[in-house]
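Reopening this ticket.

The earlier resolution said the output was attached, but the attachment link was broken on my side. Pasting everything inline this time so it's all in one place.
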Amino acid sequence: MIHVAQGDASDISAVMSIMKDAFDPRFGEAWTAAQCLSTLVLPDCQLLLAKDADEVCGFAMTRWVLDHEELLMIGVARHAQRQSIGNRLIMEMISRARNAGRTKIFLEVRDGNNAHDFYIRCGFNPIGRRKNYYKNADGLSPDAITMNLIL
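Inline output:
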């Protein structure tokens, strides 16, 4: 049975394994281990892990400033996709944000990413666009769609 637990820097190898599996390298969205670790040492960041027994099958990394939370990264191993694991991670993030007194959650998603529809189903609304934000290996520069959820 899948459960969500707090993670930390000691879980970075499991996160990187999912990052390599879940993110298409053409889009350049995956973070390096160094980027993840440098984020996790900040006091305003958290790592949530979706676990099936002891196996990490998904993760979400967030940070907060004042009363706003930001979803920095979320990923689910390919073999575990379509099992509501991403939804469990999002719902846990929302619950923790509410309990901590946050009023909004923000995220960015690449225009054309299937995750956009997932975020809509989770209650997020598009609020803006950053033109040519991402740099693809194909030489394209898709926009970032900014979204928020009012808690």
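Reporter confirms the inline version is readable. The chain has a mean pLDDT of 93. The chain has one domain: 2-150.
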